[in-house]
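Continued from yesterday's entry.
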Amino acid sequence: MYVGKRIVFLRTFYIFDCKTLMNMNIKHLGICGFMVSCLILSCTEKKKEMPIPDKVIEMDRVDGDMNEIIDTVMYLPLEKTEQSVLSRVNKLLSYDSLYFLADFNYSKIAVYTHTGKLKYVLNKRGHGRGEYLEIRNFTVHGDKLYTIDNFQSKINIYNKETGEYIESIATDIVASDIAAFGENEFLLTSIPNGQPQAKEQPENLVFLTDEDFQVKDAYFPYEKDYCEPLSRYSYFSTTDSSVIFSSFLYDGCAEMMKSNGHGIHTIQMSLKYPIPEGQRTKKESYDGSTAYAFVSQTPIACKHYWYVDVTKDRKLESFVYDTHEDKLYGNDESSMNKMAFIVGSDDRHFISYVPDKAYYDELVKYGLHRADSLTETSLAQGGSALVLYAVR
């Protein structure tokens, strides 16, 4: 059985009683972990037409257990310094044999080699040259690391190998996420949250820009009063040939192709009890007071697989969709090799983050793959680690 009694993991509360959480619903928790730090607003929604999808994925049809597609599970202990301590990892990118781990709460990015050695930490809050007031999101492209600072209306650019400041470029878009899109283009998403924008901008969710972040095109228009009551950590994820975009506007995503004239493929993730039309911008549709099902995050891609979290019956459930075979895999409740809380991927692995020993110990009881003795010792000494799920 793959649904109904799934373990409930909270991404942002690291020390907790998992057994207690399994018997609690989202209403009692307030909002489950991926919603922490989200802006909960009461919004007005006008009627919008759902785009005709190019593909429909039935999210209530589970074809097998994730163990069928997981080859191996290994841990990567991370070198620790005083600067590298993170409260959580909201987003992970792998680029040129480096892992970029972002903590948006601390507004810092810790950069590691694929062997776990710390390269540097981008931690420059302030008003001086090369400093920022926030890291709202980031991407890596070529030899540069790009971060969003909406408080100062700019994109900050650093050397990806060293973290050395290069320059800042002003932008008119209040951006929630950023992704490289071809050699000299970027995608920015701007998700309305009910607060007035600092600058006038078109009412679109996604913007195509040049390398100077001047808008070239815009996609996904919305009604003037539209807003989303929740905020995601990431709205983009990337594959070799596309950028995947998703928000709470629909249960599904759009795959934006990097070639072929920047074509867009729409994918609907069909759920048995979706949020009804006219309720998608209501906070009560997400806070657990109802039993609506909804897609909780933008899919994360690895090879031809997509990982996605869905809230069903007030529980957070994890799935992997095989885009080649059109099969959906879930976590068998009896498995001791569960995959959950994926924050990023590389060319072979889905990746999650273990911040400390207490978190690790609790999750092992309820399905997290046990680490090797070296990693357990590192965690016991105050370290952290990545969990790498190699897929077939």
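--- second protein ---
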Amino acid sequence: MKKSRILVLLISICTFSIQAQEAKQWTLAECIQHALDNNISIQQSELDVELSEIDKLTAIGNFIPTLNMSAGLTENTGLSFNPVTNNAQTTTFLSATGRINVGYTLFDGLANYRRVQRADLSKLAADYRLDKIKDDIALFVANGYLQVLTNKANLESATAQNLVTIEQIERTNQLVDAGELPRGDLLEIEASNASELQNIAVLENAVVISRISLAQLLLIDDYKNFDVVDEGYDIIDTEISEKSVEELIAAAKENRNEVKIAQANMDLAEKDLQIAKAAYWPTLSAFFGYDTRYTDGTSFVQSLDADNPVSVEQIGVVENTGQAVIGEIPNTVNRLVGPDPFFDQIYQNDGISYGLQLNIPIFNGFQVKSNVKRNKINLQRTEFLLEQAELDLESNVYQAFVDAKGSLKAYEAAQKAIESQELAYEYAKERYDVGLTNAFDFSQSKLRYDNAVIALNRSKYDYIFKIKVLELYFGIPVTELKF
């Protein structure tokens, strides 16, 4: 029975080790880079950056003259006005028109200029938001990664200690059979072994769950073949813990994106107010137009009769003498003519128009006034948000500073505790081996030592994470963090 339990434990340990060996080993740097390259929130934020670039392109385009071209093709049947001769005629004819318009805004209260400035600020704010999301994602990944390391370290420690318990079971069993120890000692150690096996199962499950959580954060579907490198992650002294909280707060206000985003939003609100006020100013624009037309309709023209160009007719009477006044009247005939060639008509029927247009706002139902007031309120709101962002950042940095100091003290206390508990455990083990203490006291000493190991692992990785948070607040780029 005892041998079978030992065999099951060894098989479980070997199976876990084989799975870990087969899984791809990811370093923390690889995990962070993978998250930065594939995280959906980051990709959405990158799209926001692209949209801000499009907004800037639109703002710049407002300084370029507009050029539009239009054309129309119409067929008329019945009584219609010929667009070329402007004569009414009952027939069927095809007509075409074309027009080119050029427009340019000469002055609009500097609204276009403000829109370009706003587009630059919008692009800057989008960049700040993207950087903040990257920092947040990197911290999430680092926290999840360190949680896996903590669970794996606890599992390794618990497994190693359980092997010691198994050895004690074998030795105690021999002593009980020899009559040197009571059977109660064997039962006590076996009970401790059962508790340790249960704890190992819990720790194995914690390792698997933390690995899956990290894989989901990285958008990795192959959970079974995902694992992390659990070596080489020690506390690296970057001297960040020696800096005062005032230095950290000052650096955070200068480097952190939270304040930069709030400042950019306030600048955007100020530009929106300036753009709204531009509507009070007159708008002056210039225009130029070119148009032409064509028709295939026939028309009647009058011309002199070639055979009888003139006729002699009385056109009046001399009042005093009654003598008739004779005159020559041109003889004209109506002649049906076809349309001129297409390009001839395009040239003959073209025309241009150009000029200036001035729009002066006088009354528009308080729309401009209301819009200005609305943007003033929005500007005040962003000013409050900037002030709140600075206060929140100062509070967060101070909290991170206190957490790091507390985490360091906890780690140092855990180191001292593990030293004392290890000595106490070794002493209890020696006394138990020579029969000077019972199995219960030995099990309690071993339990305290195991808990001290778990507390040391937890405090170590917690302190590493808290230090990295301080480094980010101090302005160290996420890709340059050292573990």
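The CA atoms of residues 175 and 473 lie 60 Å apart. Confidence is low (pLDDT under 50) at residues 1-21. Will compare against the first tomorrow.
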